[in-house]
Amino acid sequence: MFSKVYSAVTKGLSGQLVEIETMANKGLRSFNIVGLADQAIDEAKERVNAAIKSIGLNPPHSQTQKVIVNLAPADLKKEGTLYDLPIALGFLLATEQVKFSTQKILFAGELSLDGRLKAIPGTLTLTFLAKNQGFTKVILPQSNTAEASLINLLNEKNNPQIIGANNLKEVIDYLEERLIIEPAVFQNNLPEDNYTNFEIDFSSIGGQTHSKRGLEIAASGNHNLLLEGPPGTGKTLLAKAIISILPKPEPEEIIEITKIYSLAGLLDPSKPVFNQRPFRSPHHTASESALLGGGPNAKPGEITLAHRGVLFLDEFP
What confidence tens digit (pLDDT) does each residue in 218-272 have? Predict the structure, then answer.
């Protein structure tokens, strides 16, 4: 039998739709994943097998079937563990162990061996992709719903419902209408202490009138600023204080910053919304890749991580 489930891949700060196609036929026992997948996805076979077995269904390794999972488009590199959940659901659909409609639903989530769903990075980007592609629901691990529901901060129409589940069984029960899961609602109660508790507050610096005036002009106009002078004159102190006089980020800016830090894996699980302006101060020996981003597994660099905030390059020469 054949099944198709939808997921996505992150490309930079955007996403692209991925179709998880599963074919299960009688034959020698095998379970293969194709479609330019990385090692983490290849290892999903063992996680999916154990997770399905843990909820009392027949896993791939227990059946005399040839199972092929294709991640389309096949020429697009995929990486990460977010495909565990859609691969498991695709297999269960193809082997007719479950029955539900997958149209207009985007799936993403990492599976534990006991079937629990673990958090993944970049869920806010996936949610915006789902909206742009016309999906009505996004099913994610429960721990990702606070971040994903940030899409509702813009109060726009046609936002997809964010459905959070704790494990694979809850997802199946929800899809087969045996369980009701209320869509996650964004709680617009962003803490204000991010704008009052700074390492160095601008108002606590005495003197330096001329330099502080320069910082105020740079902050108000989003200008670059070069501070030079002999050691010990307060250049670093002033630079670290500039973050305290920047205005609060607008909702669109909060979403942009959160997207970046989510993709970089730098979001605090207890605070899944990055609602402050970032201050990045890389060491003066930082490499080109560390500043600009990139590498074998492309990650945002310090310049990107400072987006909508401050990039402080100490010892610039």
Answer: 999 999 999 998 999 999 999 999 999 999 899 899 999 999 999 898 988 778 8
CA-angle at 163, arms to 120 and 116, nearest 5°: 50
Predicted structure pTM score: 0.87
Closest by CA to 243, choosing from 315, 309, 313, 314, is 309
Residue 311 vs residues 223, 230, 239, 262, 300: alpha-carbon distances, Å: 12, 21, 10, 19, 14
